[in-house]
Amino acid sequence: EPFFLYLHFVDTHLPYYPPERHARPFLRRIGAVAGELRELSQDAAALFGGRMEMDRRGFEILGALYDGALSWVDEVLGRVLDLVGSSRRLHGRITVVTADHGEHLGEQGMMDHAFSLSDSLVRVPLLVNWPGVFEGNGVVTHQVQLLDLFPSLMERLEGAGRADALFPERRGLFPGDAAPPGRPWALAQYTEPVNAALRRRCPGEAVPGQALAMVRGGGWKMILAGDGSCRLHCLESDPQELADLSRDYPERLEELRRHLPQRMVPGLREAGAGALRPTDPELEARLASLGYL
Questions:
Q1: Exposed e or buried b for every residue in 209-245, given b needs 16+ CB within 10 A?
Q2: Of 68, 69, 72, 41, whose CA–CA distance to 57 is shortest?
Q3: To which H or E segment does residue 78 belong?
Q4: Which residue from 108, 266, 291, 107 is spatially nearest to 199, judged by alpha carbons?
Q5: Which residues contact 181 (CB under 8 A, 6 or more apart)?
Q6: pLDDT exceeding 70 applies to what percent of the chain?
Q7: DSSP letter string over 121-175?
Q8: For residues 292 and 194, is the Cβ–Cβ distance under 8 A?
Q9: Fewer Cβ in 10 A, N or C end of the chain?
Q10: Please, which residues bridge with residue 189 across strands?
Q11: pTM of the model
Q12: Residues 10-62 pLDDT 10s
């Protein structure tokens, strides 16, 4: 009988309140005291809206709390895997651990996971365990994207023909996949819906308001903003993405720009908030309650 279990852990989302036994080792490591914890603000809207500033020490404490939250999630996930693993019926299960985004913990003075396409947000973990199919502790070194996860699993379960028919542009994620391996040019997009929600929370404040699109490949990364400006980063020499090299390497910038589909260019209707608004009133109400609209 088919078995599917989906678990979504929100403990690594703001605000970070891990159990004390998980937070304590990380806070002790940086010498954080109770007074600092009481004074720490985890209000990302206030930071984005300019109503709050956070210094390096504040971000250090925030990072320790985040590590504590990760430690808690790791423990709970371990319990679940032990429970599932104890079932003979689920002996051949496929286990996938991944994330839909990363988190800012002071990079470029930011927190949370909004208004950016930095690697802090777009690079996420991906772990796949499949007894009898993947053995050992292999590591995929080429660049991949999560949109290829389902097609690659489908290939192993139902054959490459069906995966190709449903996902003709797919790329191979696992070693030995029939599709070409990886994504030489990874794409990402940040559109506007959450900006409107933030403006409602911070009326009258200046908040980020630009859609963004990204191309990442060959050790380089381009980010195109809604006002037409571009940033170019060399990820090998500048992994924090602090130096904009767009004026120094115009040919490289143009090379990456050519790999961005026109439909993803910020400012076009297809990339705007209006094109993404749900038509189901109940779904819209649920998304609004979570702060997405």
A1: eebbbbbbbbebbbbbbbeeebbbbbbeeeeebeeeb
A2: 41
A3: helix 56-85
A4: 291
A5: 142, 171, 172, 175
A6: 88
A7: HH---EEEE-TTTS-S-----S---GGGHHHHHHHHHH-HHHHHHH-TT--B-ST
A8: yes
A9: N
A10: 213
A11: 0.85
A12: 999 999 999 999 999 999 999 999 999 999 999 888 888 778 899 999 999 99
Give the integer Cα–Cα distance in Å for 59 and 287: 29
CA distance to 78, 82, 138, 250, 287, per residue, from 133 (Å):
21, 20, 12, 45, 38
Residue with tokens 């078995």: 3
Lowest mean pLDDT among 98-107, 187-196, 246-255: 187-196
Rounded mean pLDDT, 245-253:
96
Residue 108 pLDDT: 87
Residue type, 150: F
Q: With helix as H, strand as E and coil as C, how does 195-263 read?
A: HHHHHHHCCCCCCCCCCEEEEEECCEEEEEECCCCEEEEECCCCCCCCCCCCCCCHHHHHHHHHCCCHH
The mean per-residue pLDDT over the stretch 162-179 comes to 92
- Output the pLDDT for position 293: 64
Residues in the chain: 293
